[in-house]
């Protein structure tokens, strides 16, 4: 069985990219599931798949964050990776689907978990907002705050990979990806025509997919008047090449194979490269 990819809400599970893409497990919040049931469900997931990688946005309620760590602690399992991401909810869903695609490949759990940070750099995530007065996750100037009170104002806000905020005036769009992407759009209480008719052509996306707006999106963006979007690489072969091209190392603490500078399962930093000594001890 492939490594299990888990999320914290059903609306973070996007339709599979193809028939080979597994679905994601949903780890339910405390209000929907007792601790006893959460322990049993997570234990069964680990036993069935060997390893579990759970992704969730940093905007989830504190009770959800505590429940995840409580379950991992009680089970005393080093086979559960809890990855709290400073990404908008729709971007987390897109990233989770990419990991689901790669979980069907031959990557080890350690490489798959540590690939999350790499893949996040290639996700362009943002939203069309009717107001930025309560937005605190992207820098907003006083001028934009003042203009957000004007009737009919709209702002295109990019949260990842680089924060950017522009007004939706003709010819103004945030800088987009320089590679082929699919744009996923989730309609909220704001019209999404600008995203479909202006942003998608400007970003030269290959396709557009509509999704349900995650329930946590309004809290992340500070308003319910939004249309959220995320552009990401959809092709499994390209994602595979991207991850496979990165040098691998072994976690000095838990022994898992990883890429990058930190293990996703034990959070231990990768061991620094040591110089090879010549005979006599000279480098």
Rounded to the nearest angstrom, the radius of gyration is: 20 Å
Strand order of the largest sheet: 7-6-5-10-8-9
DSSP E strands, number: 12
Arithmetic mean pLDDT: 89
Give the oligomeric state of the chains in this entry, treating copies of one chain as homo and distinct chains as hetero: single chain
Largest sheet descriptor: 6 strands, mixed
Question: Portion of residues in helices?
Answer: 25-40%
Question: Would you tell me the structural class of the helices and strands?
Answer: alpha/beta
- Overall body shape: globular
Poorly predicted ranges: 144-151, 274-283
Number of helices: 8
Calculate the terminal CA-CA distance, rounded to whole Å.
Answer: 45 Å
Number of folding domains?
A: 2
Q: Spell out the helices and strands N to C.
A: EEHEHEHHEHEEEHEHEHEE
Percentage of residues in DSSP E strands = 15-25%
């Amino acid at each position: 069985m492939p490594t299990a990819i888990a999320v914290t809400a059903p609306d973070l599970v996007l339709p599979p990219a193809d028939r080979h893409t597994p679905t994601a497990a949903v780890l339910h919040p405390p209000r929907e599931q007792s601790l006893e049931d959460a322990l049993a469900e997570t234990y069964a997931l680990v036993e069935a798949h060997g390893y579990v990688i759970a992704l969730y946005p940093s905007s989830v309620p504190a009770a959800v964050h505590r429940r995840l760590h409580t379950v991992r602690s009680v089970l005393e399992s080093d086979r559960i990776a809890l990855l709290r991401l400073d990404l908008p909810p729709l971007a987390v869903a897109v990233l989770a689907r990419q990991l689901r695609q790669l979980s069907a490949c031959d990557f080890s759990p350690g490489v798959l978990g540590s690939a999350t940070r790499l893949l996040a750099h290639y996700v362009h995530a943002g939203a069309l907002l009717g107001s930025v007065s309560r937005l605190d996750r992207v820098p907003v100037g006083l001028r934009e705050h003042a203009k957000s009170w004007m009737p009919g104002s709209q702002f295109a806000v990019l949260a990842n990979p680089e924060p950017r905020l522009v007004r939706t005036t003709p010819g103004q769009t945030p800088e987009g990806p320089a590679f082929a992407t699919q744009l996923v759009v989730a309609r909220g209480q704001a019209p999404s025509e600008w995203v479909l008719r202006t942003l998608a052509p400007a970003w030269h996306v290959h396709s557009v997919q509509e999704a349900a707006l995650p329930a946590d999106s309004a809290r992340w963006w500070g308003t319910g008047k939004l249309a959220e979007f995320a552009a990401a690489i959809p092709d499994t072969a390209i994602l595979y090449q991207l991850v496979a091209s990165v040098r691998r190392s072994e976690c000095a603490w838990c022994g898992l194979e990883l890429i990058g500078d930190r293990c996703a399962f034990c959070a231990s930093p990768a061991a620094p490269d040591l110089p090879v000594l010549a005979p006599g001890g000279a480098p």
